[in-house]
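Structure ticket #2291
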Amino acid sequence: MTDLPTRGSIVPAQPQAPLAGWERQPFSTAAPPRPPFERIISALRRYKWFALGTLALAVLAGFMASRLVKPQYEVRATIWIEPEAPLNDRRGPIRSNELLSSAAWIELLRSYRIVDAVVQKLALYVQPSDARDLWLFSSFAIAGRFLPGAYELEIDRKGKRWKLEHANGTMSDSGAIEDSVGRKAGIRWVLPGKAFVGSGKDEVDFTLSTPRETAVALMNRMTPELPQNSNFLWLRLRGEDPELARLTLNTWITEFVAVASELKRRNVVEFANILSGQLSYSERSLHNAERALESFRVQTITLPAEGGPVAAGVEVTRDPALKSFFDQKIEYDDLRHDRQALEKVIADARAGTVPWETALLIPSVGKSAGADALRAAFNQLHAKQAELAAKREIYTDQHQAVRDALASVNTLENQTIPRLASQLLVQLREREAEYNRRIASASRELQSIPTRTIEEMRLRRAVTVSEALYTGLKSRSAEAQLAAASTTPDVTVLDSAVAPLYPTRNTAPTVLLMAVLGGLAAAIALAMLLDSFDPRIQYPEQVTGELGLSIAGAIPLFPKAGVDTRSPEQVGQLIESIRTVRMHVQNASGVPLSIAVTSPSPGDGKSFVAANLAMSFSDAGFRTVLVDGDTRRGTLHEMFQLPISPGLTEYLSGAGDVATLVHATQHQRLSVLTRGARQRNSPELLTSQALPALASELRRQYDIVVYDTPPLAAGVDAFAVATAANDLLLVLRIGQTDRRMAAAKLELLDRLPVRMLGAVLNGVELKGEFGSYKYADGYGLGDETSTAMIPSRSVE
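Resolution: structure written out below.
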């Protein structure tokens, strides 16, 4: 037994009579390259009804979903926030500080103080199921306590009555046209008169929520944006109703500006009120100092004054020690009185009977080096008190900002100011001790000098200090009153909201598009899934890749009635496809040629290919014989209109020889050996030594021997004929031949001395992945229909 090539490889045999000028070339076993999406298109074409059904269901689902999606509209507005620099300029009269920092403006905008007011003004807590019923709720309001939930309102136009029921059945109310609706549920609502115009009944469903829940939902729809180092506050509000969104945003910014203005004015007014209280206390202190000086001068008006008039130019002759003593004595007495006064003020201030500001009315304290720190502490305290009062207008006492401001005020009142006052008291005591030591050394010389002059000077200084403090506070209080009267808000509306004509976001087309794309993807996935489970041969690469066969040619798919001889295109495609198979076989094996044509299963068209291949060889000038090796169901005798016997079975049984059994046909150089009479031992005859002898005899007498065998699935007959012929051509019908069965039969052939020349693809639609097997029209010879056998119907 000679070595045979493996399946899928073509080893040309040495021809005995090669044609002049012709040289064989090996054929490729790979299928023509295909575009990447060609298999998807092919699968969709085969399972188009499944794919169209899947796509239709997806489009229908997307259409229903798009009906549930409502378009979203977006309205916008712009608010200008005053910059901080002009407000912090302290030149000139008192100016109002900025109300809030940049980040706090958004917090104020989203505070419940403003959002709750918007919800209450527009009655946004009630939402009808149908937006067309919104006009019925023009007078809708709620009491302090009400029952939220879903409601159903029934309007009887004929009876001029209404009936309101809660969804869970806990409340039911009814009344006439003029009665208030929903009194039992805490609703204050009188239906418009035109709601009862006409006849019949109308049902209105609506949902009533709490204002706070509505405010939270409204804040989620608002998008404020305040860029860093920018004075523009951008506001965007989304909603399903463009007109309602416009009205809501404009009401929101109006309320925001009003609240900001009110808080700003209260801040300045509170600062002015604090200055007014300080001015009243300073005025009382000045009056007391003036009355004390007046009482002292009245009591001493009849007593002789210290020192008489001195002539001009003699003042320098006075005793410097006397002048120094009295100066020191006066300062000592001032220090002593001031120290005592400061001790009393500290004790009374700690007891809460007098304010700490009284310490500054003491002359020595006011001129002391530490007085500036004490004044700064008082100014800081007043500012913190004003800030605390302003923040309490915005936040509760539990808010962190209020707690921080309150802590700062307490620290100043209970720690900083008492500490500074105590330091001033220590300084006064040190200065008093120093003056006491100096005066003690000269007191004996000056004991006769009365003290009323010293007291008068002290009283005059007290009046001077009180007058200066009163004058300063009077000026600042007037400036604060002017600032309160001319306070302007820190925010201004630049652009009001306008209702858009087109939705900002309409997801309905997107939903529909996603449904179409999803349906298309599902259709493709379903088609590919069905294609992956399809056991039949559908693609060229299944033949070359899975079965390991080269493709000898492709026979087009013709109508069920057979080839239409009146169609030049069908005739031309058939003839050229058979010629391609002939050239493949001739190039692969050479001449003379003995080849068996078979298929894995019945109905693949092996007889059709064998008959036309034999006629193509005869038309090419080769002496050709066609042997019907299907002794059970062979039909070549019907195709060529020959008698069924004598034939192959008679030769195998020894009833005749080749010369008497081979029949001539109407085609020149083509003979046919029919199958002969059916016998019960036909398979045994095919496996006998008579068949190889017949094959040898036919190879000696003819150039081309073509065997039409039974299908491989029919039994051992096809294997025996293929072994006798040596070469085999396998016919596979696209869309019908089972891949697994074909692979199993090919495994059996691998064990036999049979050379596989390739596969012929039958029933191929010349489009898509098989478009490369189509031949160009217009190159026929006109009379080609007479040179090839074209059956009137498909042949097995």
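Closing remark: Residues 242-300 form the longest helix (59 residues).
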